[in-house]
Design a protein that fits this description.
With 256 residues, the chain is an alpha+beta fold. The chain has one domain: HIT family -  CDH-like (HIT family, subunit A, 2-Layer Sandwich). Helix content is 24%, strand content 21%.
Length: 256
């Protein structure tokens, strides 16, 4: 029985066949902004126009840039200052690599500043899309409000989500997402590493995955997060774009 239980725990999520990744016709647009504008302006004057912030005190390899996205009332993008292409790039898992999710979560204050008031943490999230669900070839994390439907669903599901990746996915926005619970007001572990190390086979197919870090209130009022991971199934219309769980119109903040 112990062997059978271990086999069940090690069972990988369903792994649909993956077609070749799509070309991104204008996929260098973000890299051009960061590399040719934001970083040079930060180095020359300390004003990283058009970015809101550039941090390169520890070198470009460990730096990041924050840019207000043209799409959305308060959406910001967090990007590396070197040309890491996306979730599939092995440099995000290299020893000493920045924890981009932790930085992105900290920088949610820029979203709040657009509204001129604090936004309840459980209304906010950070996402990164898969190779199939993105349009740019520079790693970029979306910092924005969750959709009201997502926030409500996660609040209801939070008590049943455990500290290890679930075997049965949650269905959100019509797509399956595996879930795990993180405790604390700030993410204590790098979601990229949690995916690569915790889901069998994910390290070899990182480009097929999307991640969403969504803040929740855990039982007893403890602050925490639900980390969601979805695997692309392009042949059946699932491009693993966790950004779909966010609302770039930020209706949840407007209602509050």
């Amino acid at each position: 029985m112990a062997l059978a239980l271990a086999a069940c725990q090690e069972k990988s999520p369903a792994a649909p066949d993956l077609p070749p990744p799509p070309p991104h016709a204008n996929g260098q647009a973000l890299w051009t902004i960061v590399h040719s504008k934001c970083v040079p302006d930060e180095e020359a004057s300390g004003k990283p126009d058009p970015c809101a912030q550039v941090e390169i005190a520890n070198g470009l390899d460990h730096g990041w840039a924050l840019l207000k996205d043209l799409h959305g009332v308060a959406q910001y993008l967090l990007m590396p200052t070197i040309d890491i292409t996306g979730i599939e790039d092995p440099r995000i898992l290299a020893p000493g690599a920045p924890d981009y999710f932790a930085v992105a979560w900290r920088d949610r204050s820029f979203v709040e500043a657009k509204f001129g008031k604090p936004i309840p943490r459980q209304d906010l999230g950070v996402s990164v899309n898969s190779l199939y669900g993105r349009s740019q070839d520079l790693l970029h994390l979306h910092i924005d409000c969750l959709s009201p439907q997502t926030a409500a669903a996660l609040a209801a599901d939070a008590p049943s989500v455990g500290p290890r990746w679930s075997r049965t996915p949650l269905i959100l926005h019509g797509h399956p997402y595996y879930a795990m619970r993180l405790t604390g007001a700030d993410p204590a572990a790098d979601p990229f590493r949690l995916l690569a190390d915790g889901v069998p086979g994910a390290r070899k197919t990182m480009g097929a995955w999307t991640l969403v870090l969504a803040a929740v209130s855990l039982p007893g009022g403890t602050p925490g997060f639900i980390l969601l991971a979805g695997r692309a199934d392009p042949l059946h219309g699932d491009f693993a774009s966790g950004e779909e769980l966010q609302d770039h119109d930020c209706a949840i903040a407007k209602a509050a």
